[in-house]
Amino acid sequence: MGHRDGIAIVIPSWNGLEDLKTCVASIRAQRSVHTELFVVDNGSIDGTVEYLEKEGIDHFALPRNLGFSTAVNIGIDRTASPMVMVLNSDTVLEPDCLFQISKTLLHDPAIGGVQPLILQPTRGTKL
């Protein structure tokens, strides 16, 4: 269920289970913000749906890959939070990312959208 100042995180997923696990862990590590996580699986055959069910993550499993935008629209339609962030399943968030985003959006009603700085580090390195 949505929260007045919460952020819905919508993740389209397709055969990226290990990346998705890391992404979910980074979402669960967020501080000082309510998150509503929803994953739309595009017909994965790598155990993604079983993982989502085992972890109790809200999701919708498509029978086949219908594409990124279709998955995003399905996910947004099934969330209730007033703010939405779409993430690729290979994304890792810094622990205060969502707090900073929500603080910025809630501070000024004239701002319609924000985006964090996106970096592409080499796996296994620290920034």
Describe the structure concisely for a colleague:
Helices cover 32% and strands 17% of the residues.
Amount of beta strand: 15-25%
Question: Helix count?
Answer: 4
Query: How is the main sheet built?
Result: 4 strands, parallel
Strand order of the largest sheet: 3-2-1-4
Catalogue the unreliable spans.
Answer: none
Shape descriptor reads globular
Structural class: alpha/beta
Ends apart, CA distance between termini: 34 Å
The overall average pLDDT, rounded, is 92
Helix content: 25-40%
Radius of gyration (Å): 14 Å
| Helix and strand pattern | EHEHEHEH
Strands, total number: 4
Task: Please explain how this structure is put together.
The chain is of the alpha/beta class. Helix 2 links the parallel strand 2 and strand 3. A four-stranded parallel beta sheet has the order 3-2-1-4, with helices on both faces. It has four helices and four strands. Helices cover 32% and strands 17% of the residues. The longest helix is centred in the N-terminal third of the chain and has 12 residues.
Please write out the topology:
Elements: E1 7-13, H1 17-28, E2 35-41, H2 48-55, E3 59-61, H3 68-77, E4 83-86, H4 97-107
Parallel strand pairs: 1-2, 1-4, 2-3
Question: Which key features would you list for this structure?
Answer:
alpha/beta; 4 strands
